[in-house]
Automatic annotation (TrEMBL):
GO biological process: response to cadmium ion; response to lead ion
SMART domains: HTH_ARSR
The organism's taxonomic lineage, starting at the top: Bacteria, Pseudomonadati, Myxococcota, Myxococcia, Myxococcales
Pfam families per UniProt: HTH_20
Name recorded for this polypeptide: Transcriptional regulator2C ArsR family
Length: 225
């Protein structure tokens, strides 16, 4: 019963339209001020402060003070993962109007690559026999281990960590899986280092670079207009 009550309290915090709007904004990008979140939710700053106080109390957000400014961000990676999972319950017909095309094409799902590019990467690895799909996880084949190692990914270190090695993370805009877990995060980090992808100036959007177009084409047969 206490667990059910805890779940109900969290659901109530997220379920309010104004708070859901603010959490969605924080999911998309960097820390925001109360004023910016109020504008996003189309409510007054006073009302936003009340909502943020509830989110702080519920440990869904945290606040950082820099001088006279207070910046809010999601409290923990698990909050981001929960919000991503809830996005999957949204009706499919609403997605095209809700997701800007650059964000739909490529973004970070907290710390791993998502969107059209992330899904295409996962499927290309599968089609080439580098990755095998299970019910809710992936397994690297020997050839896959050699392949990601060539990118600079330390597979042995990842397999010994506490984090799930390779999750099948259902992409909420594509409704197909991309690679999550420790492997997804490590591959994404290496793609940034290799300059195949780059962060957009604001939010969690990702753009494909000239080097990335060439690399994905040559190594995985992925081409983009």
């Amino acid at each position: 019963m206490p667990q059910s009550l805890d779940l109900a309290l969290v659901a109530a915090l997220i379920g309010d339209p104004a708070r859901a709007s603010m959490l969605s904004r924080l999911l998309e990008g960097p820390a925001r001020t109360a004023g910016e979140l109020a504008a996003e939710a189309r409510i007054s700053p006073q009302t936003a402060s009340g909502h943020l106080a509830k989110l702080l109390e519920g440990q869904l957000v945290r606040v950082e003070v820099q001088g006279r400014h207070r910046y809010y961000r999601l409290a923990h990676p698990n909050v981001a993962r929960a919000l991503e999972a809830l996005q999957l319950l949204a009706p499919t017909r609403l997605i095209p109007s809700r997701v800007p095309e650059p964000l739909r094409f490529a973004r970070t799902c907290y710390d791993h690559l998502a969107g059209t590019l992330g899904v295409a990467l996962a499927e290309a690895l599968e089609h080439r026999g580098l990755l095998e799909s299970g019910e809710d996880s992936y397994v690297l084949t020997p050839a896959g281990t050699r392949f990601v190692s060539s990118w600079g990914v330390d597979v042995e270190a990842l397999s010994q960590g506490r984090r799930a090695f390779a999750r099948r993370c259902l992409d909420w805009s594509e409704r197909r899986a991309h690679v999550g877990g420790a492997l997804g995060a490590a591959m994404t980090e290496r793609l940034f280092v290799l300059r195949w992808i780059a962060r957009r100036p604001e939010g969690r959007g990702v753009r494909l670079t000239v080097e990335g177009r060439r690399g994905f084409d040559q190594q995985l047969g992925l081409t983009w207009p």
